[in-house]
Amino acid sequence: MPYRVLGEGAFEWIGAWYKTILSSEDTEGDISVVDCVSPPGFGPPRHIHHSQDETFVILTGRIEFWLEGARFMRGPGETAYIPKGREHTFRIAGEEWSRHFVTATPGGLDAFFEEMGRQGLGLPHDMERIVESARRHALEFTGPPLEDE
Question: Could you say which of 3, 43, 51, 96 is the most buried, measured as most Cβ atoms within 10 Å of its Cβ?
């Protein structure tokens, strides 16, 4: 099972597994790093981080990114940088699960993931509560998940 890769302290949210490996609390809000394991086809709705730059480091699998209308692919050993204020989303491409680190600068994205996982909120039926939490974490949902063109 994919979550065993992450070990103790991992939690599930909307089909992916998360484990904070460097919390914003531990860095006085400067940075956070979350270890993520996501299944094929997984991807969040389009969104904007108003306060954080986001960097993905892909360890396994392939991820298709959408950044303000431009699509690009990243695989093992590659990175994707999403500047704050830019609308984006991503989707796990192919048949392989993806393990990737998500770094947020400044920190705070880890707290959003943990809040969603603890509350067991799901898409789309809990979207109202998810949007409330997202606002507290300077995150805005703007559209649907990434689909095939």
Answer: 43
Answer for the pair 138, 52: CB distance below 8 angstroms, yes or no. yes
**How many angstroms separate the CA atoms of 10 and 20, rounded?**
8
**Contacts of range 119-123, beta carbons closer than 8 Å, 24 or more positions apart:** 121/13, 122/14, 123/14, 123/45
| DSSP assignment string, 81-131 | EE-TT--EEEEEESSS-EEEEEEEESS-HHHHHHHHHHHT--TTTTHHHHH
CA distances to 34, 135, 148 from 20, rounded to whole Å, are 4, 21, 30
Alpha carbons 124 and 7: distance in angstroms, whole number: 28
Q: Is 1 helix (H, G, I), strand (E, B) or coil?
A: coil
Whole-number pLDDT of residue 121: 77
